[in-house]
């Protein structure tokens, strides 16, 4: 029988590079290693924070300038609305209603209320209704009540009826109640005369409507006087 020949493994040359065992994560030849993922690059946080800070500062500056411009616009509008200047208006009231009416007048004045291009400044005086009626109808000197007021608020419509009977020419606008308490109905009547101009006559009606608003009615309630 012939002897089988066995292929002998070539002996490596001393200068040949050593062979590496091939693993699962490697590829042969010139391909790259794909078993490991490339590390992610970290993004610096300080540029983002700087951008946010700049944006907040810009918003704040814009808001401040807007608010300042809004206040200036309102001030200019009020100045133009009051182009005819200030006009004083005197309102005489019965003493029991002095406190809430005075508070309302102060609020009115602080708001620079405009009537026909005039800033109307209200002055409130408290006098007994009998004394006011006597002065208006001529039973006493008109100077005794400080002259002719633009509006009068007695405690009862009785006094307005008496005035309308004795001096109807002094009634510039119909009386209307602004509050009530027991037998009192507190009518506000606008007066007319040589010292009462058209602005004051209009302002007396506007002030009557003003007294009927919730904020002023709350002052009446606080004083123990019911709202209308």
UniProtKB/TrEMBL annotation:
Biased amino acid composition, Basic and acidic residues: 1-19
Keyword Transmembrane helix tagged: yes
Keyword tags: Membrane, Transmembrane, Transmembrane helix
Chain positions covered by the region annotation Disordered: 1-36
Membrane-spanning parts: 46-67
Official protein name in the record: Extracellular solute-binding protein
């Amino acid at each position: 029988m012939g002897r089988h020949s066995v292929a002998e493994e070539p002996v490596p040359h001393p200068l040949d590079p050593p062979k590496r065992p091939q693993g699962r994560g490697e590829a042969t030849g010139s391909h790259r290693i794909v078993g490991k993922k490339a590390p992610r690059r970290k993004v610096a946080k300080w540029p983002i924070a700087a951008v946010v800070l700049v944006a907040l500062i810009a918003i704040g500056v814009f808001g401040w300038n807007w608010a300042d411009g809004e206040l200036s616009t309102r001030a200019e509008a009020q100045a133009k609305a009051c182009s005819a200047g200030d006009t004083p208006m005197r309102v005489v009231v019965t003493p029991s209603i002095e406190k809430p009416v005075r508070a309302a007048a102060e609020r009115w004045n602080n708001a620079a209320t405009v009537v026909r291009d005039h800033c109307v400044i209200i002055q409130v005086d408290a006098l007994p209704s009998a004394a006011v009626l006597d002065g208006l109808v001529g039973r006493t000197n008109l100077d005794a009540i400080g002259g002719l007021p633009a509006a009068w608020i007695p405690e009862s419509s009785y006094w307005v009826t008496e005035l309308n009977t004795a001096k109807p020419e002094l009634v510039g606008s119909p009386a209307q109640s602004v509050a009530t308490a027991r037998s009192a109905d507190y009518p506000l009547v606008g007066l007319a005369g040589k010292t009462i101009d058209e602005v004051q006559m209009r302002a007396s009606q506007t002030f009557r409507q003003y007294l009927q608003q919730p904020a002023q009615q709350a002052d009446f309630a606080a004083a123990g006087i019911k709202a209308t």
